[in-house]
Fold this sequence. Notes:
Blueprint: H1 16-19, H2 25-51, H3 55-71, H4 85-100, H5 120-130, H6 138-164, H7 168-179, H8 189-196, H9 200-224, H10 229-240
Amino acid sequence: MENEPRGNFPPTRWSAIEAARSADPAERRRALDRIASVYWKPVYKYVRARYGRSPEDAQDLTQEFFASLVDRAALDTYDPRRARLRTFLRSCVDALVANSDRDAGRLKRGGGIAPLSLEYELAEGELARTGLPSPERLDDFFEREWVRSLLATAVEQLRAACAAKGKDAVFAVFECYDLDDAEPGRPTYADLARDLGLSVTDVTNYLASARRELRRISLELLHETTASDEEFRREARSLLGHDPE
């Protein structure tokens, strides 16, 4: 990634929130796919945890929720000055679940747009490992899952970018050092250099490069899934722990 343009912000800002309000159905669908890439796991897990719905019912509700964002123009009512997007989306999920039992037009019975392709088994596996939160921790659960999902999406984009540029070694160093949580802990730079056939200097440079690129990708995703610069900065503080530079 050493030859990539540096800088903390993406050079252009394409907002999925703005696109979801477009009159163009294709543009709205593209926006739905982008918003769902970050939010589908938090929504699915939240429905499972807060409402005790079965996996099958939570899948139906998740599909219906994202269809409603675009098909019913739910995002037209969103005002970033009043709430964060994730707070607004969670309130929409609550309303959807509250109405679900009396809603005869559920997506599984043929309404709405084409369903999203989502890896529900992966989400269930994560829930099996972490367990469902206790009732007193539900308020923080959605935010934690949002952070987890955004970073996981960014990591997959980093993996794909490294592969496309023939820089698999860059991702391999990052994966082994920052992502592998196997015992007994992180390897040393010397261990990585030996195992991957690199120099210690290469390991140092590759790890720094991957971290910079992951930060850039994460901020770009945040730009795309927020509706204003102020909301972006608020969410960046939640994600990074400080203001983006």
